[in-house]
Design brief:
mainly alpha; 2% strand
Length: 301
């Protein structure tokens, strides 16, 4: 078992469970292997089983207790801040607030990855915000004057002029768009934005989190006639899941191709965002896992 990496987790209880199992594994040959009591002592907590209660979901962590846990987890200052963001996200009950916390966590992790050199600074500067993508698509929208003031109004005031100016400059500096200084009309210099082939996972998650959050806001900002937000929940086999995922990808590519061809001869009226979300809500049952992996069970006996 490898040492758990905090940045790879979106469930702090799973992270704590893996941390504990890793410590037990590393000390299994000792006279006194790692225990819940050892963690409590390192965190300066009186209850010897407090970590187990947290892992099992029987207790929550306060902000102060997060700091004590980070001490026992041997976190540095950045990891301590990240752990608090992760705990805040996981323990939030309100769906809207929970998504806000996830957005903050994704942005924080992406920024830290950039500072650590895992994300190219040039890539970060070019495509780090949803606003860059929207303005690039807006080039195909009819009648838009590419000034910060006009774009802010078209975006219904969701951003300020400074943010628009920064996004515009990123696109101009990257050579993705050109703006006529007299008419303020913009044109794309290529069919797609540059640098899209080398976007790191953390940055993709950050951007997708922002776009999904905008989708949540659309439920309250637009009438049902102006949007299409729907879903269904049902059980599937793995084979059915792969089929649905394939069909969704095929649909997305088909729509994208058809609309892109139309934009070669005519302009659009508005910029739309299409999010396709398809994800599991439950894990396989324990009985199914046991049935499918009898050889593993035999090794454990």
């Amino acid at each position: 078992m490898e040492q758990p990496v905090l940045a790879e987790y979106v469930d702090y209880r799973k992270y704590l469970a893996d941390f504990y199992q890793y410590q037990v594994q590393q000390t299994q040959g000792r006279l006194r292997p790692y225990s819940y009591s050892d963690f409590s002592a390192a965190a300066n907590i009186k209850s010897p089983n407090y970590l187990r209660l947290i892992i099992e979901g029987k207790r929550n962590l306060s902000a102060d207790m997060c700091g004590q846990f980070s001490r026992a987890l041997r976190h540095n200052r950045a990891q301590t801040a990240e752990f608090l963001l992760l705990v805040t996200y996981c323990q939030e009950k309100d769906p809207m607030q929970r998504n806000r916390h996830l957005k903050v966590l994704s942005e924080w992790r992406a920024k830290k990855s950039m500072e650590a050199g895992k994300i190219n600074t040039e890539t970060w500067e070019q495509v780090s915000s949803w606003l860059v993508w929207v303005i690039y698509a807006m080039v195909d929208q009819e009648g838009v004057s590419f000034t910060p003031e006009k774009i802010r109004k078209v975006l219904r005031g969701q951003v300020n002029e400074a943010q628009v100016s920064q996004a515009l400059q990123k696109l101009i500096d990257a050579g993705d768009i050109e703006i006529d200084p007299i008419t303020n009309k913009a044109r794309k210099t290529s069919l797609t934005m540059s640098g899209l082939d080398d976007i790191p996972t953390e940055l993709i998650r950050k951007i997708q989190s922002e776009l999904i959050y905008l989708g949540l806001e659309s439920l309250h900002q637009f009438n049902p006639q102006e949007r299409e937000v729907s879903g269904f929940t049902l059980a599937m086999t793995e084979k059915e899941f792969e089929w649905v995922r394939f069909e969704l990808r095929k649909l997305r590519k088909h729509i994208q191709k058809e609309i892109s061809m139309k934009r070669e001869t005519t302009s659009g009226e508005r910029v739309y965002q299409m999010n396709i979300q398809f994800f599991p809500l439950s894990d396989p049952s324990a009985e199914k896992i046991d049935k499918e992996r009898p050889e593993e069970q035999a090794e454990l006996v």
